[in-house]
């Protein structure tokens, strides 16, 4: 069922390390706008990025913006704001945790897989 508010959700957003963001931008997902609060759809995370900055970016992509359909986030970045990701229950945007070059993917940490296991009683 498509509602009027979900029709605009046509963009991917990415929160990740420099290599991940570079790859995604080369693949063509980058969007930069002059519209307030919709300037860009990606956040480069490095060692100096604070948890507060991550939380603000997550809130921007998931609650403020109405054009984001999927949020891709490196799993090691998601670990820093795990409480926000685990408590996010809205259907849009879908939040998908992805691996990075330096941090392998751990299915035990993935919030989507944990929810699926709970549904099946595992």
From TrEMBL:
Location of the protein in the cell: Vacuole membrane
UniProt topology in membrane: Peripheral membrane protein
Record flagged with keyword Lipid metabolism: no
Gene3D superfamilies assigned: ATPase, V1 complex, subunit F (3.40.50.10580)
TM spans (from-to): none
A single MF term (Gene Ontology): proton-transporting ATPase activity, rotational mechanism
Source taxon at top rank: Eukaryota
Any one GO cellular component localisation term in the record: proton-transporting V-type ATPase, V1 domain
Keywords of the record: Hydrogen ion transport, Ion transport, Membrane, Transport, Vacuole
Classification via PANTHER family: V-TYPE PROTON ATPASE SUBUNIT F, VACUOLAR ATP SYNTHASE SUBUNIT F
Function: Subunit of the V1 complex of vacuolar(H+)-ATPase (V-ATPase), a multisubunit enzyme composed of a peripheral complex (V1) that hydrolyzes ATP and a membrane integral complex (V0) that translocates protons. V-ATPase is responsible for acidifying and maintaining the pH of intracellular compartments.
Sequence similarity: Belongs to the V-ATPase F subunit family.
Assembly information from the UniProt record: V-ATPase is a heteromultimeric enzyme composed of a peripheral catalytic V1 complex (components A to H) attached to an integral membrane V0 proton pore complex (components: a, c, c', c'', d, e, f and VOA1). V-ATPase is a heteromultimeric enzyme made up of two complexes: the ATP-hydrolytic V1 complex and the proton translocation V0 complex.
Protein name (Swiss-Prot/TrEMBL): V-type proton ATPase subunit F
Classification of source organism: Eukaryota, Fungi, Dikarya, Ascomycota, Saccharomycotina
């Amino acid at each position: 069922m498509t509602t009027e508010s979900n029709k605009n959700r046509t963009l991917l957003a990415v929160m990740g390390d420099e290599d991940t963001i570079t790859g995604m931008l080369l693949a063509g997902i980058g969007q930069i706008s002059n519209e307030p609060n919709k300037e860009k759809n990606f956040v480069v995370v490095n060692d100096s990025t604070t948890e507060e900055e991550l939380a603000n970016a997550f809130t921007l992509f998931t609650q403020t913006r109405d054009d984001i359909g999927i949020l891709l986030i490196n799993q090691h970045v998601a670990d820093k704001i795990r409480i926000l990701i685990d408590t996010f229950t809205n259907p849009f945007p879908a939040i998908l945790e992805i691996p990075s070059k330096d941090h392998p993917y751990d299915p035990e940490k993935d919030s989507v897989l944990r929810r699926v296991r709970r549904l099946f009683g595992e």
